[in-house]
Amino acid sequence: MTKEIPHLDAAFSALADPTRRAILARLALGETTVMEIARPFEMTQPAISRHLKVLEDAGLIIRRVEGSKRPCRIAPDAIANVDRWLGMLRDALAKNYDRLDSVLASMMTEERKERP
Amino acid sequence: MSAMALVTEGERYVVVRRNFAASPEAVYRAHTEPALIQKWLLGPDGWTMPVCINEARPGGRIRYEWTDGKGGGFYLTGEYIELKPFSRIVHVERMHLPDPTPDNHIETTFEPHGSGTLMTMRMTLPDAATRDAMLSTGMEHGMEASYVRLETFL
Asked: What is the pLDDT of residues A65-99, one digit of tens each?
């Protein structure tokens, strides 16, 4: 299932970090330079750059070169992929409890057989 | 079949409730006996749980491994803290994706409700950010993260 969607494992592990989620939240407002991204965080620019690299490798952000700057923006396709995957997962998880209903029903049938 | 309720409480809690048309004993057993767990705790169609270790005693280990049969897979580990047959289970678990997610502390209760059972699962996460991440990834087994979308934190 996950094979159909590129970068998904990397996307989820990238999203597991609160700093990276905060960076994405900032980028949701629009394209931004590393310096601007780093400002609200108590982190050095190289530390922020490492987080950006993880997000970029996961396909969640896109960086372009503009002179000495490398402005970042959110990759809309990647977000749509994660969302699509969540939709599939949601359906799949709902099936767990529906399956449990069937398991319980067959447990009760067996119990009736054992204790007539 | 019954609707599932999922609510967040405070910053660190997630509560799931669902009714089952079976006795608390049956629902409890379906959560603690490997042969039964392997029949339902599977997620998407086509996935199986070839490894199911469930030592239902205080300090007992939990290990579930899932596979899609095409090389994809992940696993969960945990430990039991308290068990009161057939009404209450307290355990800790984490997913390995493969890096472990923060510990999820879970209390599950099974109460008689009409002719069936009301199951309540209360999860306690280390902090709000972890809970939000967990809801966003929807990785918690059995959880219908229907209202949860990426916009939660975007």
From this structure: 888 888 998 887 766 666 555 555 456 567 788 89
User: Which B-chain residues 20-79 have CB contacts (< 8 A) with chain A?
Assistant: 20-22, 26-27, 29-30, 36, 39-47, 68, 70, 72
Strand bridging mode B61-67 / A61-63: unpaired
**Among candidates A112, A110, A107, A98, which has minimal Cα distance to B25?**
A107
Task: Dig out the tokens for A44 from the structure.
Answer: 């050095």
> Does B94 contact A at CB distance below 8 Å?
no
Domain edges within chain A: 2-114
Distance of CA B97 to the CA centre of its chain: 16
CB distance B24 to B110 below 8 Å = yes
> How many Å apart are CA A21 and CA B84, to the nearest integer?
39
Compare all CA atoms of chain B with the CA of A78 and give the residue at the minimum distance: B150
CA distance B32 to B28: 6
Looking at 3.30.310.50, 1.10.10.10, 1.10.357.10, 2.30.30.210, the CATH number of the domain A2-114 comes to: 1.10.10.10
What ipTM is given for this predicted complex?
A: 0.77
* Farthest CA pair distance, chain A: 82
Question: What distances in angstroms separate CA B119 from CA B6, B17, B43, B103, B137, one per listed residue?
Answer: 12, 6, 19, 21, 23
Q: What is the pTM of this model?
A: 0.62
